[in-house]
Amino acid sequence: MGRRVSGGAVRRLRPDAILVDSQTLLSDRALVVRDGRVLGHDGPSAEDEVHPGEFWSAAPVLVHAHLESHDAPAATWSRAGFAAWAAELLAWRERRDRLPPDQAAAASLAELRRAGCGFVLAHRAEAGATSEAHRRARELPELLDLPELFAPEPERAGEALRTCAGAPGRALHSPFGVSLELARAAFAAPGPVSIHLGEHAEERRLLAAGDGPLAELLRARGRPLPAGRWPSPVDWLADAGGLRPGVLAVHGADLRPEELRRLDRAGVRVVWCPGTHRFFRRPAPAFAAAGLPAPALGCDSRASNDALDPLREFRLAGRLLPDFPPAAWWRAATEGGAEAVGRADLGHLRPGAAARWLRFRAPRSPADAAAACVWLAGEEVRPIGGVEAAA
Ligand SMILES: [Zn+2]
To answer: What fold is seen in the domain 4-59+347-390?
Structure first.
């Protein structure tokens, strides 16, 4: 579990088969690693550390999570709509008998490590919802946590932005959770910006007409409504200056094909969270209808998902949206996620990659990469231990 093997020397690790990426399966080849990097692949040698009966893959990359709320009793909450659910979440957050943010973050990271996650991008909404011990120990999954800003009051834009000074990027809650002033400043600054966008019809209605369940929730909590009208969440993003590379649009499942294509043309990456999509029983998204590759994947949080598990998200994606074959979803869960966060060294095991992998017990090696991805989609297939890495 999160095991690291010592670095320095060249090591040759030889399972029965290695899924190098969604297109490439190698059999009877050693993975040659040094100093935490993949050097290459080589034929069998007497120096190999052999792992008979095992199948290895690159570690998945999840591009959206919240480490808070690990103990959220979400199974009992309303799923009738986003605003109804959000009201339950906000009420629960007032309680004192829940895990403090740092302990919730540690529990979330431990769950992700056991489930085989190699890298996770998280929105940090609560101060302290990160695990300093995890970061210091350079434990897996590798964590990029971005401070999440929720400040719909225009006069609070400056104060909100100061809270993320020095951070590697910013997260905005949503088009209704930040003022246009704050959004424009956040998108104008260099670096990645992640935002929940095009998640549900309630958001579209609020932006287009200024009413509906979200407007009622904001009013009930004494927060201002968005000061403008936009026919589409993507129009709001354009107005805010967010149609640029480095922006991550999280969920996107309520967006129409032409809206998704507009994001794609601008270099905005969509991140879909299948577990949360299923939690809310939302209609099928238009990713395939838009003619675009399968989106990167996230797991959101335990407040709207039953588990934090990249393989489960990969499998749910295939079940909810079978328009893409398992190899396309495997690519999305690995290299697609890595590309979305600008990390060419993650999500595959080609030369130069971070030596970070999952081990599976496989009585019989799959015939090719496509068959391996179909096999990985089987519910019973679990990684041995969790994500591993060569230091
Ligand atoms: Zn989220």
So the answer is: Urease, subunit C; domain 1 (2.30.40)
